[in-house]
Design a protein that fits this description.
The chain is α/β, with parallel strands linked by helices. It is 33% helix and 23% strand. The chain folds into two domains: 1-85 and 171-260, 3-Layer(aba) Sandwich (Rossmann fold), CATH 3.40.50; 95-170, no CATH class. It has helices at residues 48-55, 78-84, 101-113, 130-139, 155-168, 185-198, 211-217, 235-238, 242-249; strands at residues 8-19, 22-28, 31-33, 37-41, 63-68, 71-72, 86-89, 173-177, 203-207, 220-225, 228-233. The protein is globular, with a radius of gyration of 19 Å.
Length: 260
């Protein structure tokens, strides 16, 4: 890998997905820089989630190539992708509601260790994991909630727990799918700050509708429309692009704003 490309952690080349003649993702060329927060945005039906499903191999591309750290991973299975360090946090909270907050993170750590199916092991044998669990909970501001049943957590804190379980898998690239969906302002702000904090030493690729979140934390924004790349760049540039404004607002006479 040359010095010129070594700072690109993820790249897609003409990534395409067709469903019975309908082109959901149309020759998308993504280049995600290592250590950055990269946002994938666009109107409903733009192909954002389909793109995520291609990257994590829940869908197989019709055409195109996916490179991770310069290695072609286009035909690899989801489990192989995860082992490489591409970990996805789902749009709908994916935690075990009747386990405690601590137990949820510990399950994720067991997965990483390859002991996830050793349910017959005495609980005390899992205690060495607890120190790392508490570290992760403190990282997402859930240190005081370790013994709380997950079902009792407020929605925003459930999403923070989901980020903790994603971090437990030691992602090199974190894919966040609509991390603030359905949240009130206070929770949105908490998750925004949390994403910025956990992105300090890793790379984040996120699908997000909330422009205030995108404008305040994303280094690079890729705008999709009808499955194709409409624009790309920092928020200051993308938000003034007439084609982007029209895609979102139906008119090029308004400005796409994100509150900081």
């Amino acid at each position: 890998m040359s010095a010129a490309t070594s700072d690109i952690i993820l790249e897609t080349r003409d990534l395409t997905k067709e469903f019975k003649g309908f082109v959901a993702v149309d020759k998308v060329n993504l280049r995600v820089r290592r250590g950055s927060i990269h946002a994938l945005i666009g109107p409903n039906g733009a192909g954002k989630t389909t793109c995520f499903n291609l990257l994590t191999k829940f869908l197989t591309p019709t055409a195109g190539t996916i490179l991770f750290n310069g290695v072609d991973i286009t035909r690899e299975k989801p489990a192989h992708i995860a082992r490489r360090g591409i970990i996805r946090s789902f749009q709908i909270s994916a935690v075990f509601p009747h386990l405690s907050v601590l137990e949820n993170v510990r399950v994720a750590l067991q997965r990483k260790l390859g002991t996830s199916f050793h349910f017959w092991r005495a609980e005390r044998s899992l205690e060495p994991l607890n120190e790392r669990v508490h570290e992760l909970l403190r990282a997402v501001d859930l240190g005081d909630y370790a013994d709380t049943p997950t079902v009792e957590l407020a929605y925003g804190r459930k999403r923070a727990l989901e980020i903790a379980t994603t971090l437990a898998m030691e992602p090199e690239l974190m894919l966040l799918d609509e991390p603030t969906q359905g949240m009130g302002l206070e929770d949105v702000d908490r998750i925004r700050q949390l994403i910025k904090k956990v992105a300090a030493n890793r790379t984040v690729l996120m699908v997000e509708h909330n422009m205030s979140v995108v404008s305040s934390i994303a280094d690079t924004i890729t705008v999709l429309q009808r499955g194709a790349t409409l624009a790309e760049g920092p928020y200051e540039v993308v938000s003034k692009n007439p084609a982007v404004i029209e895609a979102y607002m139906g008119s090029a006479d308004v400005e796409l704003k994100g509150a900081h």
